[in-house]
Each structure stands twice: as C-alpha cells, then as structure tokens.
Fold:
Amino acid sequence: MIDPALNAALNRPTVRPLMLVEIVWKEGVTRVHSGLGDYQYNGQTFRGLGDLGKVSVIKQQNGESPSRLNLTLSSFDDSVRGEALSARYVGQPVKLWLAALDDDHQIEASQMLWHGAISDGGVVVGKNNKITLTVSNRLEDWDKARADRYTDESHQARHPGDRFFIYVPVMAEYPIHWGSDKNSIPLKDSI
Structure:
C-alpha cells in the first residue's frame, strides 16, 4: 500500500522522484541517493550518485514468495574495486526508500520500498566497470534452516539460567487424553 502523501506527490504533473539506499556494512554505513548533492533524510546525510548508481526493477509479488533486486555502482577506480573484492558483505542489511521532491527540491514525502539483506555480489572489470550487489528481501530468510532448536540446551546457550524449555522433552512424548482424569502431566516427577 502506497503512502497517501507519496501517492499525491507522484500524481502531480511534474514528478521529482528520488531513490534512497542505506547499506549497513561491518565497518560503517553507506547512504546514497539517485540524485546529485547531499540530502538529509531521517536525520542522516545521503550522498548523491546520479547516473553512477542504479537500482533494478522492483517486482511486486503476491503471496509469500521471496524476490530480489540488484544495486549497481559503475565507473569506479582501483581502490573501490579492491575494497569491493575484499569486503564481507553477504548478510548485511539494506533499506531502500522512494521519495518525492517538492518544487524547492526538498523531500516532501517518502516510503520504504525494500528491506532485506545482501545475498550476493560481484565485480565486473573491462569496458563497463561495475559492482553489483544482489539484495534479497526478508521472505527469503524463511527458507533458511535455523541453528537454534526449541530445546533447553539451545535456550540456555542464549539465556543462561532461564529454564523455559526444561519440560519440552517430557511434553513431546507424553500422551494427552482429552476430557479425562488422566489429563494431568506429572512434570515434577519427570525430571
């Protein structure tokens, strides 16, 4: 659902859209936008990339299927390429906003369009130098296996002293007789 203020700004005869991207690296945060110069947004400074940065088409999908987009930075020097090759960027969070500018080129309305993490990246060197980051949305995480289990040992590793899952093994194997006097579970006797 699009924000009503952003929708109104995008339906004017003259539209000034702006894409804002925030990538949280292990070494710091990068904030850029699709225009030129600096913009203040949410108390942070976003630097303009102009035509050097591109965002692939964002496809709207119904249901719970994950989708991806590509962020591309082109025309870079050797130091930037070296940093991109040595960076550990997989799993780093990414946010993307669409904003509309008013007649004074100030951000009038905005809405977050994307929130996810970097799933892959690559560098192309040659006639068209570019760094491409593939970003997947949060739905893709649902398909990944988790290291944590619903066991007392797993819970103790994260929260020492909290015995929330102590009775799980007993409960999993105990027969439950609904509507019967045999329904109570002797938890204190099981440990």
In short: The first strand starts at residue 17 and ends at 24.
